[in-house]
Amino acid sequence: MNSPAPNENPGCVGRLLALLGITSGSLGNELTLAHLPYHVRDDFLSKAEHSFYLVLRHMMGEYFTICTKVNLSDIFYVSNPHENRTARNKIDRKHVDFLICDPKTMKPRFAIELDDATHQRRDRVERDRFVDDVFEAAGLPLVRVAANSTYSQSMLGEFFKTALSQTTPRGVLDPKESYAPKADDPPPYCPSCGQPMVLREAKRGPKRGEKFYGCVNYPRCKEVVPLG
For residue 175, is it within any domain? Predict the structure, then answer.
């Protein structure tokens, strides 16, 4: 007499699991998944990146699509990959903060790096120099923007227009000067909500009479941007 296959003789425990709708295969899969050490990150975008993304979203509207944290190997390819394996490996684990694409074709138009204080470290300086070279060699404009609490839409717009008009980039556009809006400038965007801020005047306290930009969502959002 042939012995039954394991799945043909489940035993008492097997029959009980079957009554509950649990098979040995699904149980094993669940146990395997339960041991995988993966979790959703809360900081996919840092506070500075999220603030700048909200500004970009208002500026780009429906004219461009904004992709965040894109791997360089998804943007560029390496010619003769078997011979240039080192070049392929050097871009494999590097990403750019924002990639601006044509909304219909998703063709990259230019990229943006948001530079905070960490970019002053020696290792980051070398990394940034290499990334700049990659973009220039491939002919894709790269704009570097110093991270700030607020941004001038007109200033950013000029840099973006220049990037879009470049057929052969000549270096990196780099607005490093800090920005404080003037009363006659277009209102800045709230770094938390991404909404245009409104000009207000302090009614009390030591700064009484001074004008500043406040969030339209006050008091739920208490972000303040002083005038320059």
Answer: no
> Is position 170 within any domain?
no
Q: How far apart are CA 143 and CA 158, in angstroms?
A: 11
Residue 123 has pLDDT above 80, yes or no: yes
Identity at 142, one-letter amino acid code:
L
Cα-atom radius of gyration of the chain, to the nearest Å?
A: 26
| Whole-number Å distance between alpha carbons of 103 and 157 | 18
Q: In total, how many domains does the chain have?
A: 3
Judge whether residue 138 has pLDDT over 50.
yes
Q: Do residues 91 and 200 share a domain?
A: no
Query: Which residue range forms the structural domain that includes residue 222?
Result: 181-228
User: Both 101 and 55 in a single domain?
Assistant: yes
Preceding omega of 219 cis (within 30 degrees of 0): yes
Q: Which residue has the higher pLDDT, 9 or 134?
A: 134
- pTM (whole model) above 0.85: no
Nearest CA to 62 out of 98, 11, 103, 13 is that of 103
